[in-house]
Automatic annotation (TrEMBL):
<protein>
    <submittedName>
        <fullName>Phosphate ABC transporter ATP-binding protein PstB</fullName>
    </submittedName>
</protein>
<keyword id="KW-0067">ATP-binding</keyword>
<dbReference type="Pfam" id="PF00005">
    <property type="entry name" value="ABC_tran"/>
</dbReference>
<dbReference type="InterPro" id="IPR017871">
    <property type="entry name" value="ABC_transporter-like_CS"/>
</dbReference>
<dbReference type="GO" id="GO:0005524">
    <property type="term" value="F:ATP binding"/>
</dbReference>
<dbReference type="InterPro" id="IPR003439">
    <property type="entry name" value="ABC_transporter-like_ATP-bd"/>
</dbReference>
<keyword id="KW-1278">Translocase</keyword>
<dbReference type="InterPro" id="IPR005670">
    <property type="entry name" value="PstB-like"/>
</dbReference>
<feature type="domain" description="ABC transporter">
    <location>
        <begin position="5"/>
        <end position="247"/>
    </location>
</feature>
<dbReference type="InterPro" id="IPR003593">
    <property type="entry name" value="AAA+_ATPase"/>
</dbReference>
<keyword id="KW-0813">Transport</keyword>
<keyword id="KW-0547">Nucleotide-binding</keyword>
<dbReference type="InterPro" id="IPR027417">
    <property type="entry name" value="P-loop_NTPase"/>
</dbReference>
Amino acid sequence: MAKRLDLADVNIYYGKFHAVADVALSVPPHSVTAFIGPSGCGKSTVLRSLNRMHEVTPGARVAGSIELDGEDIYGAGVDPVGVRRTIGMVFQRPNPFPTMTIRDNVVAGLKLQGGKSKSDLADVTERSLKGANLWNEVKDRLDKPGGGLSGGQQQRLCIARAIAVQPDVLLMDEPCSALDPISTLAIEDLITELKQDFTIVIVTHNMQQAARVSDQTAFFNLEATGKPGRLVEIDDTDKIFSNPSRTATEDYVSGRFG
């Protein structure tokens, strides 16, 4: 079930380095929010903080509040593994387990949890691959290695793996940057379909992609090297691209910098 994300006064650090400052935004359920901005402005760092992947880096920490339907995901006693199950992630480069079968790739997370019968796992495999628009292409070779698929198919396999555990939110960190245009279009179509069931946040360098797939867009920027990245503005995608409130946003989306 899709849920709402709310960030308030979020500051993110790597050791003493202040990477991102004072982020406040909300992500409604059943929507796609795109993070755009120049390299190094902190958009992927913010994305990784949303499911506590950021803290995997030694010395990294998050201050402020990140809530999922009103519950602080960084609260005392909250299990980060549970957070990552509830808020799934798809990475920039397809990362299926290359020697593992397509079937085992999809249900890898469920097998770690245990308690599922073979028939349950078969049902989840079919449902997840259909959800990732991959079932018809692989249903006759589920026992073949996941690494044998094309790049676009591998990324859809990773999406199937992410949705198999039925998260509430799906994070995507530049999911199309390593893909050809046809595979990119397939992923974009899939994102539009997936928001019926999930809340989606996507980081993209491709502004046309942000304009095509997102309901709202957040523009991040870096004032200077060594300074923290900041959220400049967030608004409906149509407004960000046609009539942004801030000059820096207009300069970026019009190609004057970045």
